[in-house]
Amino acid sequence: MSDHNQQAVARYHNDFLKEVENHVEDGEWVKMCMQCGVCAGSCPLGDAWQHTPQKLFMMIRAGKREEVLTSDSMWMCTSCYNCIVRCPRKLPITHIMHGLASYAHRLNLAPKGQPTREIAILFWKNLAKTGRVNELKFSLAMYFKDGFVQGIKNALAMQGVGLGLVKAKRLNPMELFGGHKCKDTGGLRKMIAKAREIEDRKKGFTQ
Ligand code: SF4
Ligand code: SF4
Fold first, then answer.
1. pLDDT at 172
2. Is residue 22 located within the same domain as residue 59?
3. pLDDT of 204 above 80
4. pLDDT surpasses 60 at 12
5. Within this chain, do residues 131 and 191 fall inside the same structural domain, yes or no?
6. Does pLDDT of 179 surpass 90?
């Protein structure tokens, strides 16, 4: 094979597409995208996105690994499913977006301080502890995520809403000292650990 042909083959060989196919939920669908732009036009967040799904899929195929995995766009997906129902190639776009976000997070490449990512992490930590979301602890974690002083400012700014919720019996201050939980929290944690182990094995995740 001539040097020119070898270079052409090297350019065509796309490791990042393979990586996405092997490690990202439903990543094997990315190569089916025909770049029609329907998903980009259907997404309610539209122009607010740094990279639309269409653009992300094009970048994956072009091998733009860092640009894709550090993008904040996957974290903006609201799971409205508009794109999925309209994609002429039936790509599971929403699942791929969340799969990319999860993969970037596990590689520690996801953008730090991205608000929806922070909410997702705090929500999951709260939920996974007891199997039930503790609204009071979750709200406090949100208020104090940027430090103690900011947390006090946030709590004071929201005190009217908090007191209103307590009065309407929608928020129980006693939740701070334990709160409701599922019957077998130990079993729940084992189940989550097992699910992660199975997922890692399935996707050959080694990091
Ligand atoms: S609608 Fe489907 S085929 Fe069209 S650009 Fe989006 S993902 Fe690709
Ligand atoms: S599911 Fe996500 S990517 Fe698809 S249209 Fe809705 S917000 Fe956009």
1. 86
2. yes
3. no
4. no
5. yes
6. no
- Give, as one character, the DSSP assignment of residue 159: H
Give the mutation target among 52, 74, 82 for probing the ligand 2 site: most ligand atoms within 8 A of CB.
82
Lowest mean per-residue pLDDT among 8-12, 48-52, 59-63, 100-104: 8-12
pTM: 0.80
User: CATH number for the domain including 80?
Assistant: 1.10.1060.10
Using alpha carbons only, give the angle 21, 42, 84 rounded to the nearest 5 degrees: 40
| Binding site membership of 77 for ligand 2 (Cβ less than 6 Å) | yes
Task: Report pLDDT for 102.
Answer: 92
Last residue of a domain, one of 87, 106, 125: 106
Q: Is 45 in the pocket of ligand 2 (CB under 6 A)?
A: yes
Count of the separate structural domains present in the chain: 2
Can you tell me the distance from the alpha carbon of 101 to that of 164, in angstroms, rounded to the nearest whole number? 36
Concatenated DSSP letters for 115-130?
HHHHHHHHHHHHHHHH
Q: Position 47: which residue type?
A: D
Q: Which of 57, 78, 106 is the last residue of a domain?
A: 106
**Is 61 in contact with 15 (CB distance < 8 Å)?**
no
Q: Which ligand is nearest to the CA of 54?
A: 1
